[in-house]
């Protein structure tokens, strides 16, 4: 049987924009590829200052935020987005390999809507993104 090359479908211009913030290049790029393949528009940042600049500039629908970042950590990034940038429509999802309840609770206190463990289950992540980017159901 002959194999037919499959080309990805173009991402719709109205697809939610997701910012992936992680200092681990391989993990970040893998997540970006996965999300693009799932039909999302995706941008990326490797540290806190870059993340804040991209949030200000692009105002993404979702920020997938590693908490242990260089220069400015993820907790401070979340706090800045919530208190200084005032983007209530942007959903913050902390992705953390930390398994300390106080650190995860701190992420919520700093403004994260959700905290998911790293490594993140792709199906659960996709389900979470769909849930937080879907418009409310009309009654």
Task: Give a brief rundown of this model.
Helix content is 41%, strand content 18%. It has 139 residues and is of the alpha/beta class. Helix 2 (48-58) packs parallel to helix 3.
Please tell me about this protein's structure.
The protein is α/β, with parallel strands linked by helices and 139 residues long. It has a single domain (17-133), classed as Response regulator (Rossmann fold), CATH 3.40.50.2300. Helix content is 41%, strand content 18%. The protein has five helices and five strands; from the N terminus they run βαβαβαβαβα. The protein has helices at residues 25-37, 48-58, 74-85, 101-109, 122-133; strands at residues 17-21, 41-45, 62-66, 91-96, 114-117. It has a five-stranded parallel sheet with strand order 2-1-3-4-5, with helices on both faces. Strand 1 (17-21), helix 1 and strand 2 form a beta-alpha-beta unit. Helix 2 (48-58) packs parallel to helix 3 (74-85). Residues 1-7 have low confidence and may be disordered.
Write down the overall mean pLDDT: 88
Major sheet description: 5 strands, parallel
Which secondary-structure class do the elements indicate?
Answer: alpha/beta
**Which band does the percent of strand residues land in?**
15-25%
Order of helices and strands: EHEHEHEHEH
CATH C-level label: Alpha Beta
- How many domains in all? 1
What is the rounded Rg?
Answer: 16 Å
Count all strands and give the number: 5
CATH superfamily: Response regulator
* N-end to C-end Cα span: 50 Å
């Amino acid at each position: 049987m002959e194999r037919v090359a499959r080309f990805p479908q173009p991402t719709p211009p109205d697809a939610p924009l997701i910012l992936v913030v992680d200092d681990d290049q391989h993990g970040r790029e893998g997540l970006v590829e996965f999300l693009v393949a799932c039909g999302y528009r995706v941008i990326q940042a490797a540290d806190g200052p870059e993340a804040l600049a991209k949030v200000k500039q692009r105002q993404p629908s979702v920020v997938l935020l590693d908490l242990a970042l260089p220069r400015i950590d993820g907790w401070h990034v979340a706090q800045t987005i919530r208190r200084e940038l005032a983007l209530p429509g942007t959903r913050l999802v902390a992705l953390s390999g930390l398994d300390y309840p106080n650190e995860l609770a701190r992420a919520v206190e700093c403004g994260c809507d959700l905290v998911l463990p790293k490594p993140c289950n792709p199906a659960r992540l996709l389900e979470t993104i769909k849930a937080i980017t879907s418009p409310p159901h009309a009654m």
